Amino acid sequence: MLDTFKSISLSYKTAPLQVRELIALNEDEAKRLMLRLRDFFGLTDLLVISTCNRTEVYYAFEKDLSADIARLLLIEKGLTDTDNYLPYFQFFGVHDEAVRHLFEVCVGLHSQVVGDMQIPNQVKQSYQWSADLDMAGPFLHRLMHTIFFTNKRVAQETPFRDGAASVSYAAVELIDELIGENQNPNILVIGLGEIGTDVCKNLEARSEANHKQANITLCNRTQAKAEVLASQYGFRMADFANLTDEIRRADVIISSVMRDDPLITPELLRDVTVLTFKYFIDLSVPRSVDAAVEQIPGVLVYNIDNIRNRADEALNQRLAAIPQVEAIVTQAVAEFGDWSKEMVVSPTINKLKNALEQIRRDEIARYMKHLTPDESEKVDKITRGIMQKIIKLPVLQLKAACKRGEAETLIDVLNDLFDLEKQSVDEQKHSY
C-alpha cells in the first residue's frame, strides 16, 4: 500500500521564537538537508518547508524515520545536543494525518495569523526545491497540485483571505488606501522590534505584488538590527540621529518604538514643512506619536486602536469562515485519498490491459493475412471495442474495492486468473 506519507513539524505552536530561529532553513540549507536525506535514507518524495513560524519535513517511506530526520536536521544546524530539542517537534507518523496537516498548513489554518496569504507562495517555493532536485515523484506532484487547487477554492469560495488580520499587515494595507495601490511613496519605518520586523516583511510583499522597487528606509536605535533587515530586503538604512530629516523626506511614517514618552512630537516636527499630506501610523503602546502632531496642517495620525479594529474585524471574519475551509479541505483530502488508493491497483490494471491486448493481437494475427486492409481495420476496431467493454467492469470493481480497503483480494484473484505475474516477467524479457 502507499500509506507511507509522514512528517515532522516544529512551529510557533510547539517552540518559542529563539528555538525556531536556530532551526529555520534558507534555500541552500533546505536543499542540502534534502540531499542528505536522500543519501542517508534513499528518500524520493520529499518536501521541506521553512518559514519564520515553522520548519517541517514531509516524506514518503515505509519505515518511520521521523526522529532520525529531526536529529539530522538539528545536526545540520550545528545543534548536537539533539535530545534537548526533540521535544519541540511534533511527529505525524500516520499517512492520513500527515496529508491532512499539509493541506491545513498550506491553506493557512495553522498560520500564526490565520489565513496568512504568504504561506501558499512559501509552500510553492518549497515544492520547487523538491522539483529542482528531482525529489518529487508522482505522489508528491499530485498531492501538491491538489493542495494548490484547494487553496484556490478557499480564496474564491470563502472570506478566509479577506482583509488584513494582523496589525502589521493592516498597517501596510492602510498605505494602499491612503496613497493608492500602484503608487510608490517614501516610507520610513522607525523601530525594528517584532512588529517593526513584521512590517518590513509585509512591505516587501507589497513591493513584489506591485512589481515596483520600494522606497523604504529603516531607522532604529540599534543600528546593527537595521543593517541586517536592510540587507535582507534591499531597503535603505538611516542613522537614528537624522530622524527629523528622514521624517521630512517620507510620505508615510510607521512607528513601533517602545518608550514611555512619545518620540514624535510637534517640537520634533517644528522645522518640517508638509506640502501635501504626511501620514503617521503609530503601532506603539504607549503611543510613540504625540496626538498633538495631527494639529499640524497636512498631518494625519493613525494609532494602534485604529489599526487593531481593522485587523480584529478581518480576523473575526476569517475565524467565522474556518468551518467552510475545513469542509473544503475534508473534501479535497478524501478525493486525494481515493486517488492514492487507486494508485495501488493501477499496475494491476495495466497488466490486465496488456494481457488482454496481447491475446487480441495474437488472435488477429492468425487471420490478418486473409483480410483486405479495409477488413483488417474493421476487425481491429471491433476487437478493441470488445476488449474495452470486457475490462471496464473489472477496473470499476477494483477502484470500488480500493475505497472499501479490499483491493488486495481482487488483485490476487486477477493475478491468478490471468497469470499477470508471468505477463509482467515476459514484458521485461521483451524489453531488453
From TrEMBL:
Reactions catalysed, as given in the entry: (S)-4-amino-5-oxopentanoate + tRNA(Glu) + NADP(+) = L-glutamyl-tRNA(Glu) + NADPH + H(+)
Domain Glutamyl-tRNA reductase N-terminal, chain residue ranges per copy: 8-158
InterPro entries, per the entry: 4pyrrol_synth_GluRdtase, 4pyrrol_synth_GluRdtase_dimer, 4pyrrol_synth_GluRdtase_N, GluRdtase_dimer_dom_sf, GluRdtase_N_sf, NAD(P)-bd_dom_sf, Shikm_DH/Glu-tRNA_Rdtase
Active-site residue list: C52
Entry coiled-coil feature ranges: none
Known pathway: Porphyrin-containing compound metabolism; protoporphyrin-IX biosynthesis; 5-aminolevulinate from L-glutamyl-tRNA(Glu): step 1/2
Residue(s) at site: Important for activity: H101
GO MF term set: glutamyl-tRNA reductase activity
EC code(s) of this entry: 1.2.1.70
A Pfam short name: GlutR_N
The keyword Cell division is assigned to this record: no
Residues reported in the UniProt entry to bind NADP(+): G191, L192, G193, E194, I195, G196
Domain Tetrapyrrole biosynthesis glutamyl-tRNA reductase dimerisation: 324-420
Miscellaneous: During catalysis, the active site Cys acts as a nucleophile attacking the alpha-carbonyl group of tRNA-bound glutamate with the formation of a thioester intermediate between enzyme and glutamate, and the concomitant release of tRNA(Glu). The thioester intermediate is finally reduced by direct hydride transfer from NADPH, to form the product GSA.
Description of how the protein assembles with itself and partners: Homodimer.
Domain notes: Possesses an unusual extended V-shaped dimeric structure with each monomer consisting of three distinct domains arranged along a curved 'spinal' alpha-helix. The N-terminal catalytic domain specifically recognizes the glutamate moiety of the substrate. The second domain is the NADPH-binding domain, and the third C-terminal domain is responsible for dimerization.
Known function: Catalyzes the NADPH-dependent reduction of glutamyl-tRNA(Glu) to glutamate 1-semialdehyde (GSA).
Protein name: Glutamyl-tRNA reductase
Organism annotation: Spirosoma flavum
